[in-house]
Design brief:
Blueprint (H helix, E strand, L loop, with lengths): L3 H4 L14 H4 L7 H10 L4 H16 L6 H6 L1 H18 L9 H14 L5 H7 L3 H14 L13 H22 L3
Length: 183
């Protein structure tokens, strides 16, 4: 994706603000909703930890939030209660529209999805995938602020994504197979 400065004719006068690469103008972690849902689902909800790490890292580096992003991502179900309101504040500060669901409810949904996923029952494993709903709601608001779906720079799957998606798919196959095999 090219910004306005790269698209303009060489004879045009372009201000310094327009020369800033699109990625530098965007807030928080930019990823397409589809990619977020697919990666989170194939990784049994674990991709959410990476998503939270990237958002905490943004807040730490660009918004001077005092935190350890890796530790906050590791304990994601608890720290999502702090992350969601900070993200919504930043979204609205940049002229975006906050998700219709209050941040504490988003955090409770994520927390419940993680808790349910710890129960050893096939239905609970599937229900735990609903923890991506609050992430997707926040990501939609982030993407809207960043220029809409067409401005999302992180839409395509990388080689690493594909490797882990194949491994995650195989693991899902084993989980489903084990549901039908009695031991």
């Amino acid at each position: 994706m090219q910004n306005n400065a790269e698209n303009s004719n060489s004879g045009d006068q372009v201000g310094d603000a327009e020369r800033v690469p699109l990625a530098d103008k965007q807030i928080l972690y930019s990823i397409s909703i589809g990619k977020l849902i697919i990666l989170n689902s194939l990784f049994f909800g674990m991709y959410a930890m990476f998503w939270m790490f990237m958002n905490w890292k943004y807040l730490h580096e660009r918004e001077q939030v005092k935190c350890f992003p890796a530790a906050r991502a590791l304990f994601a179900p608890l720290f999502f209660f702090a992350l969601a309101p900070k993200m919504i504040d930043l979204i609205t500060k940049h002229g975006g529209k906050a998700p219709p669901t209050p941040p504490v409810v988003l955090a409770l949904i994520y927390f419940a999805g993680n808790f349910i996923g710890r129960i050893e029952h096939p239905a609970c494993i599937l229900l735990s995938l609903l923890n991506v709903v609050p992430l997707a709601m926040l990501q939609k608001a982030i993407n809207d602020v960043n220029g809409g779906p067409d401005a999302v720079l992180n839409q395509k799957f990388s080689i690493v994504n594909w490797v882990f998606m194949v491994l995650g798919g195989l693991l899902w196959g084993l989980v489903i197979f084990s549901m039908f095999v009695k031991t």
